[in-house]
Every structure is written in C-alpha cells, then in structure tokens.
Amino acid sequence: MIPCAVVGVGQTHHKSRRRDVSVGGLVREAVFRALDDAEMTMADIDAVVIGKAPDLFEGVMKPELYLSDALGAVGKPMFRVHTAGSVGGTTAIVAASHVQAGKHRRVLAVAYQKQSEGNAQFALGSGKGASLGAGGAFAPFIRAYIHRSGAPEHIGWKVAVKDRLNALKNPYAHLKIEDISIDKVKASPMMWDPIRFLESCPSSDGACAVVVTDEEGGRTAAAAGRQPAWILATSSRSEPPSFPGRDPVRPAACLQCADDVYRQAGITDPRRQLDMAELYVPFSWHEAIWLEAHRIAEPGEGWRMIDRGETELGGAFPINCSGGVLSSNPIGASGLLRFAEAANQVRGAAGEHQVDGCRTALAMAYGANSQYFSMWVVADRLHPFD
Amino acid sequence: MTRFVESTITFPYRRSLGPMLSAFMTALTERRILGIRCGEAVLVPPMEWDPATGAALPLDLVEVGPAGTVQSWTWVPAPTEQHPVQRPFAFAFVLLDGATTPLLHAVDAGSAAAMADGMRVAPRWRGERVGRITDIACFVPGEQPELDGDDTGPAAQPVEIMDYNARITYRNPVPPSADRAVELSRQQRLVGMRCPQCERTYVGGRGYCPIDSIELGEEHEIDLAHTGTITNFVIITPVQYPGQTETEPFARVFVLIDDSDVVLAYQPTIELPVADVRVGRRVAAVWASPGEEIDAGGGMGVSLGALIGWMPTGEPDIADPDLVNRIF
Fold first, then answer.
1. Which end of chain A, N or C, is more open, meaning fewer C-beta atoms within 10 Å of its C-beta?
2. pTM as predicted
3. A25 to chain B, closest Cα gap in Å
4. Which domains, from first to last, does chain A contain?
C-alpha cells in the first residue's frame, strides 16, 4: 500500500445560516482554503470525492452532479460517498484509498451540509410527523450507559462545557458561548431525557476539505517546511441497525473498526500511544461512550477520565480540542472535520487549540443508528512507533 | 402480485442564491436577462465559476437578449402538470443575443411544424415576477417580448432566497414477508420469525436474519406474547417543522416481549402519561379496531400493521435495573 498524507486542510466558518452563499459557494470556500494550504490549485488535483448526508436535508437530488464543475472536477474522476453521519470520515477514507492504491496522486476530499435550507428533524424523520431526531434515537443508549457505568449526571454537563470552551479557541467553530458553565448547561431545557439542550449539537451550515497526496507529495511538502499529516491507518465498519442482543453503547462495529486502525498503525496501547482524539460526539455523553468503545478507557472508566479533566485541552488525553460536533455540526462535513482537525493537530497547525507536542491522533465519525463507523490515525511521521 | 404503497413527502426548502444568482434572479423581475463574462464567453444563465476549470469568476454581468435563436429543440406532445406550458410545446436551447451558451427553456409555438433550428424567439414574461427562471413563462416565435398578465413591476428588494416547495411521491413495493406480517396483525397476531441458525427472532415481516444472511419464511414463524416489559424509553420534546404532527412531549418505549428475545424499539404508548413511563413497567399490545387505518408497510423499516402501541397492564413492575441494556 502506498503511504499517503494530508497536505492541505480547509473549512468554512460554520454558522446557523449561511444565507450569503449558494451551496456551491459554501463548498468552494473550504476547497480553496484546503488548496491554498496545500499550495495547489484545482489543476493539480487528480480526482474529487464528495460526501454529504441524505439529499432530503437540502432537497437537492444528486448534488454531486451540480457541484462537479464547482469543484473543478470536469474531466476528472468524481465520487459521491454516503454513509449517514459518518460520511465525512468515509469521504476522507475513500480519498486516501485512491492514493494508497496508486490510482491517483492528489485527491481532494470535500464534505458539506447546508442545514438552513431544510430541516434536520424533518429529514431524519423521513419526512413524516413525530420525528425522534438524533437525540431521540440516542437518548436510550445514553440512559443505558449511565446505568451500567454508574456515572454521575454532571459528566454530561462537564463535556458540554469543555467542548464549548475549546470552541472559543477555534475561529471556525459555530457556537461561541462566552459564558458557558455547568450551571448554564444544567439550567438548559431537557430535550430528550437525559439529554439537555446545551448537551446537544447545533444545526450548522458548513463545509470541509482536505487534500490527500502520496509519499512523494508528503515529502515535498515536508521539505518545503509544510508538515504533512501521515495517514497511518484507515478503517470503516458497519453493522445492522437492529437485532436481538445488539449493544449500541458498545457496538461491535465500533470495537472492530478501532481494533483495525490500531493494528494497521501499530498501536497496542491507544491511551499511551495516541496524543489526542477527535471523536464524533453530537451529545455530550457520547464522549464517555466512545472513550470506552475505542478502548481508550476500560468499560465503565470513560466517565472517570472526563471527571478527572483528562480530556480537556491541556489534559492527559485531550478530546475534541476543536470544540467538536457539540460546537459545529454541518452533518455531512462533521466527520471530515474530525479527520481534518486530527490532521491539523499532528501538523502543528491547530492554532490556539493545538495540543502541545501532538504527534499522533485518532479521528472517528459515526452515523445512522450508531451503525456506521469511520476512523483514521494520523501522525507527524510515517513510522512513529519504530 | 406485489402490493405497492404510495407515500408523498413535501417540504418548503429555502435556497440561498449567493451573490451571482441573486443578481440574475433580481434582474428577471426587471424583465432583464443577465449573463456573466468568462474570458471571451458570456455564460447564460450565469455561473459563479468557470465551468471548465472551476476558477472563480468576477461578478462581471452583462445583459443579453431579450431575443435569441433556437439551436436545438424537442417537442413535448403531452405536457404534465409539472411542465412549464400546459399545452404541447418545445423544450429548446435558446442562444440569446450576446450570449455564447444557450439557455434551456420552453418555446410555445403551437405545433412542432412551427419549430425549426435557427428560428428567432423572444421571452413571454409573467406579469407577476418573483425572481425565478419561470418569471419567463416561455419563449415565443419572433423578436418581440410579450407580457402575460398585469405587470406587477420589479422586486422591491434584491432576491436572495428562493423558496422551493418540494413534493415527491414514492411508490414502494411491500415485500411478501412484510405483507404477511401486516395481514397477521389484522388478525391481532404478533408473529416473529426465528432464525434457524442463531435462533434470534425478528418481527414485523423482516424476511431475513441480518446476522446469518438467511432468508426467513412462514416455516420460521412463531406466535409471540401480547405482553412485555418496558426496558428503556425516550421522552421527546417535539421540534416544530413543516409536517410535524406533535405539539406536546411524547414517549417512545422499548418493549421486551414476554418469553422471547424480541425487543420492539421506539414504540408508541397509549393511556400512559409521559411522567409514568419507566423501566420495568408492564405493558400490553393495543390493536387497531377493524377498519381503522394502519401502517400498511412499504416503509424503510419493519411494519407492525395493526399493532398501534402499548398500554400499562397494571401488574407490578419488573425489578431488574439491567433491563435498561435491552435496547435491541
């Protein structure tokens, strides 16, 4: 497999409503930032991969057709990816696969959502009344986690505050809640018991793009003083939405996906060998759930890491230093944002929310009924554990 | 014969046009058609970027037309309500004077015999214009633009948003297994299909085991109890959106069916106040009355047909806190 690296990252400023741009205009903001970061132009790109959540969100069928020339893809291979909320991560993985396979040398991965054009609750409810929304679907999973781990209720509030404090350091983040506090989260309305309003992700317009290149491209960037993020491993897994005995708190697909990226990357002790992770946490409790389902913490121990402050920026194992999905949620792009933020951390390009000395990072996205999982591990060098 | 179920989805989308399309749509309300310069070319309708390279285009707009030349066309002999003209008409590529790319639009020429490549056409404007491509009702033969109805004048404000009422009707086939589950539910039977390999039981006419990829049929059917225990639940505060049917918080519960491994997820409750929903609560199936409209299948998931929800039995709760882990 050909080694590959991220050499360019770009994203939009995420907002509730980007009424000033078309979908094409929104996506191109992220694309040109990524190309500028990579010191490339559209002409340098060999293939384009685009991902977004269901077409019902914006009501534009097959947007990849409408966006092909907006993305400079005329005369080039272009691929649409769709794996529900994990799609942004899968988009990055598909882009990396083209390079790893030796098919293309420079691939642009783009993901977006313009939630303001439609309504997520409507779309997630398949266009019918009484939509549960994502919070309604996941609240029972969280209740089960709280029961089996014995975690106190303030854990969810703590994550909600931490990610919003991180967002204040991220110029692209959507939510900027200057006076965020435990009391404020606690006082916010109960949306889907036990999930409160401020423990939930926002609805955002936004896009993200990354440029993936081969080993030579990565080395060229490095020689020019632009640190690449070497992609050590990628993996995706899925499982059926429901069957007797399925455990959505510790999904088999998530464990298998994590095991697979760790094996590829040479990681035997993720807590020690990784420096940070960007995990897809749309509701605060999912930080604890995913810490355990990625074997970063033992079962029942994830919430204790949070309680001890270890997942804060500056903690022993920072999670979602960008502010995460809890602070910006252009759904289709949310997964790619995790992957891009992890890349920026190992590139030393995360600005104010940079983890000091970050050399290896995990990114994860999940989707649908906690049934699609996408992950990658990136590092500042190709063989960090030799 | 496969049975089909029809369902219609409607939603009022709000498109943000961006600076370039906004200028184009605003100009339409002024009965002007704009193109954009792209090197030597003039693109109509205008684009935000060079279609060949993706490069950004400066907002260098130029008025074209209003008349133009038909480059190519196709006759639509039997228009539907979705077509722009409600009598036989042509779809045509119209190269407007001053443009280098053709605009696709309708030409109302009366008959196919009146159509020809190279013919001259001009827009028939709607009297009431809102900033959409249909502000041009169609093109008509000749050099002179027409006005259809009383002129309400240009838009008072720049047109930046386009409302779009999407409506889609799906016709979904109901798999035989789901069809049968619905039919059995009419007889007030809750029937599961047990996988011969893993012995998991599936309800609602899922005609296969997703674990073993085995097709399940009538030989695998077993009748299930009509009572169960709530293992987990969610109370939903409804967010309002077009098509929302709920205004007050409502519950969805997970019911572990007695003497089985089956959990029915996200079930509606009946005569069970939201505040009284709890893990361990005993419930019984409630069936639709004969003749009452039911979920007839054809959706993405399983169909429970005439099983419309669960109500409390009045029995004491099951005191097993670990029930909460049985979500599926």
1. C
2. 0.95
3. 7
4. 4-120+206-223 (3.40.47.10)
